[in-house]
Design brief:
2 domains, two-stranded antiparallel ribbon, Thrombin, subunit H, 130 residues, 9 strands, mainly beta
Length: 130
């Protein structure tokens, strides 16, 4: 049986896991090793648009935070590829920014939901991929 030694970055105490199991939190102080969201998401359903490779798409937001947005959209052919960089805008939210597609999930034929992360102005990631 494999015994792994872990060091908590919060309390600096050593603890062990057995058999390759991953501990989600420190047994001493409760520090969580699971990455948490940096900003709170707010449910908000408003119309928005995004442009990818010169094609404009209409979408509806599901939720929004300071760092990104979840959208629902329809597509023809294949849905957008992961890491695609696009231009996102919503007048209702007063947002007009480049964004990167972090994840996508097909809901039905030609309908998908996607998570977008807003990119900072001047970022090296603001060029189209794909």
């Amino acid at each position: 049986m494999t015994k792994l030694t872990r060091l908590c970055p919060n309390c600096m105490k050593v603890f062990y896991t057995v058999g390759g199991a991953f501990a989600n939190e420190c047994p001493h102080c409760g520090y969580s090793f699971v990455k948490k969201r940096a900003y709170k998401r707010t449910k908000k359903s408003v119309s928005c648009t995004f442009v990818y490779r010169g094609t404009s798409y209409t979408a509806t937001t599901r939720n929004v935070s300071k760092s990104g947005v979840c959208i629902e959209y329809q597509y023809i052919g294949e849905h957008l590829p992961k890491d695609a960089v696009l231009k996102f805008s919503s007048r209702s939210l007063n947002i007009d920014t480049p964004a990167r597609l972090v994840w996508t999930k097909e809901l039905s034929t030609r309908k998908a939901v996607a998570g977008l992360k807003f990119l900072k102005a001047g970022s090296t990631e603001t060029t189209e991929k794909g």
